[in-house]
Amino acid sequence: MKAIFSLVALLLFAVTNAQKFDCTSKTAEYQAFYKAKNMSSAFESWNEVRKNCPKQSETIYTDGIEILQYKTDNAASAEEKETLVREMMKLYDQYNKNFPDAVPDFEVKKAMALYNNKIEAKEEIFGLLHSAFSKVPQSITDANTIFTYFSLCHEKYKTGDSKYGFDFLIDKYSLASGMLTELETTHPDKATEYKTAMRSLKSITRELMTCENLSKYYEGKFEQNKDNAGWLDKALSTLTAKCSANPIYARMAEKLYRIKATANSAEYMALASIKQRKFAETEQYYNEAANLETNPAKKAKIYYILGTGILANDMAKSKENLNKAVQNDPKMGRALLFLAQMYSYAPEKDCGKDDFEKKAIYYLAIKTALKAGEADPGLKAAAQKMADDFKAQALTQADINKAKLAGKDYAIGCWINETITFPAK
């Protein structure tokens, strides 16, 4: 009985103390230090909140990670640095336990905390990344993380361990390259990072990921995976750059398309068709891919391929597809630059009923080139040079004034079929 009373007293004491801890005021206290960049003082009160109010807010964890990283960056020794990084890893575990939907990739965060802070724990980093890439690849968007994981897989392959043989490496290459390709389109603001990671990926596997090796691998795996749409999609994505002319590519593209017609499967069919010089089918599949695609940036790329590829000699169709590309992606300056170049060829190919209209076409080419530079600042210099090159053949304000067209509209015929509004005097 005495033991029971002691236990009750202990529980009451714990409850009373818990009730005394004011999560709201303590959170405000550490955040005041945090906002003032006084991380040492912030750490003490933050740590109390973390222990006593683990479900109070996600901010406790996002702030805590920054506080711990600051302390890690200013650690006095390698030992202190590793201790702090390990503390950060525990925080990610706690974050995932209390807010699992917020950090499904918590294992990635833990691994990269070790990697980015240069903690010697290669096996541990590989294990965490291997687990995360198996469980939640869709939650991983960092280019450096994807490359780091693949480079560690490549190192495993080089050890000669049969567990990490060539099949393992190609599987991981397919995964990583597929992720980077997809992310480049869905996260255009980070496209440069994904392209850089892809170049690095290809650089360390140049001698291994040959068309011959890839084709042999996928031919051997095709039968057992021929009804697996996910596997086929990744395989085709990997083969697209180097082996789209190979027979296995066409077989897999046809199989995937039969399973389900999607933007991806139709685009693979288009590429397989063009390699077989079936141009009518190529156009059909690319149009189907564009119609099925829901991502505007991807849709724009398909129209750009049509406009600059198999339809490049059909000026009207080329222009139509280039305009569709810009409509879907207003930042696609390269489509406008290509269109400006097309306009510049028109006067030499029977467009322009008289000298004035021919000059008006060059005038339109200049305007279109300058629009390209406005759409994509990275093309500004090239666009300006192109515009300057056209000036000698284009209308001047004096020409416009002489024709009494200042401030008026002027229609250009031929395949161009555009109306220019000239500036006033």
Succession of helices and strands: HHHHHHHHHHHHHHHHHHHHHEE
Low-confidence stretches: 1-18
Number of helices: 21
Helix/strand-derived category reads mainly alpha
The largest sheet, given as strand count, sense and whether it forms a barrel, is: 2 strands, antiparallel
* Strand line-up in the sheet with most strands: 1-2
Q: How confident is the prediction overall: mean pLDDT?
A: 92
Strand content: under 5%
Approximate shape: globular
Radius of gyration: 30 Å
From the structure above, extract its key features.
mainly alpha, two-stranded antiparallel ribbon, 72% helix, 425 residues, 2 strands, disordered N terminus
Task: Briefly characterize the structure.
The protein is mostly helical and 425 residues long. Helices cover 72% and strands 2% of the residues.
Description of the molecule:
There is one protein chain. This protein is mainly alpha-helical and 425 residues long. 72% of the residues lie in helices and 2% in strands. It is built from 21 helices and two strands. The protein has helices at residues 2-20, 23-35, 39-52, 59-73, 78-98, 106-116, 122-135, 143-158, 166-186, 191-204, 211-225, 229-243, 247-259, 263-275, 279-292, 296-308, 315-328, 333-345, 355-375, 380-390, 397-402; strands at 409-412, 418-421. A two-stranded antiparallel sheet has the order 1-2. Strand 1 (409-412) and strand 2 (418-421) form a beta hairpin. Helix 3 crosses helix 4 (59-73), helix 11 (211-225) runs antiparallel to helix 12 and helix 14 (263-275) runs antiparallel to helix 15 (279-292). The radius of gyration is 30 Å and the shape is globular. Residues 1-18 have low confidence and may be disordered.
